[in-house]
Amino acid sequence: MGDMLTKNEYRELVKNQRMMLGLENINQLSQVIIDEYCQLESYKNADVIMPYCSKDYEINTRSLIKRAIEDGKIVAVPKLIIDEFGEGYMVFVKINENTPFIKVKYNLEEPDSNDTYYPNRSQSIEYIMPGLAFDLNGGRIGYGGGYYDRYLSKYDMPNLHKVALALDFQIFDELPCNEYDKKYDTLISENRYFFRNF
């Protein structure tokens, strides 16, 4: 185990590989992954899809957002709220095909809407977790902000299915994760699926 990289080393490794692959290739592979994902029963049966709004070299989620809206699902995407103490936390807001988006910091796009969605136990929910690296145990290394893990610590429930979309080179056998790091349930790459055993 002594040869395992740190979280930041994994982040840098994956960021470099993504840049080498290039945006055009990432966008093409993203479409393959999203098409695969939309074949899953969990997507087909979902009432609610909670994707992130991709930026730069992430798996491009634009077509997933468009498709889920067209499929008549409730679609809610993240929005960062800064409280009166300067602390940031994440909410999800409902969007449709006419929702305007605005550029915010870190080159992120957020919906210009305050129609907050609160997960509840009566709906089948797909929660798409962004990340730089994933392992075969459900582990995930994000960007270091902790927003998704903190959100899940509030709303994780049996009807909320946690999905990771990744390129093959973002998948490792094992990553240095701790007990605060929330695990995905299903991982989909351009070549394979992993369904974590509960």
Oligomer: single chain
**CATH topology label:** Rossmann fold
Poorly predicted ranges: none
Global shape: globular
Helix/strand order, N-terminal first: HHHEHEEEEEEEEHEEEE
The pLDDT mean sits at 92
Helix proportion range: 25-40%
- Give the biggest beta sheet: 8 strands, mixed
Question: Could you say which structural class the secondary elements and strand pairing correspond to?
Answer: alpha/beta
Q: In percent, how much strand structure appears in the residues?
A: 25-35%
- CATH level-two architecture: 3-Layer(aba) Sandwich
Instruction: List the domain count as a whole number.
Output: 1
CATH class placement: Alpha Beta
Number of separate helices: 5
CATH superfamily, called what?
NagB/RpiA/CoA transferase-like
Detailed description of the structure:
- This protein has 198 residues and is of the alpha/beta class.
- The protein has a single domain (7-195), classed as Rossmann fold (3-Layer(aba) Sandwich).
- Helices cover 26% and strands 26% of the residues.
- It has five helices and 13 strands.
- It has an eight-stranded mixed sheet with strand order 6-3-2-1-7-10-12-13. The chain has a three-stranded mixed sheet with strand order 9-8-11, with helices on one face.
- A hairpin with a 5-residue loop joins β4 (101-103) and β5 (109-111).
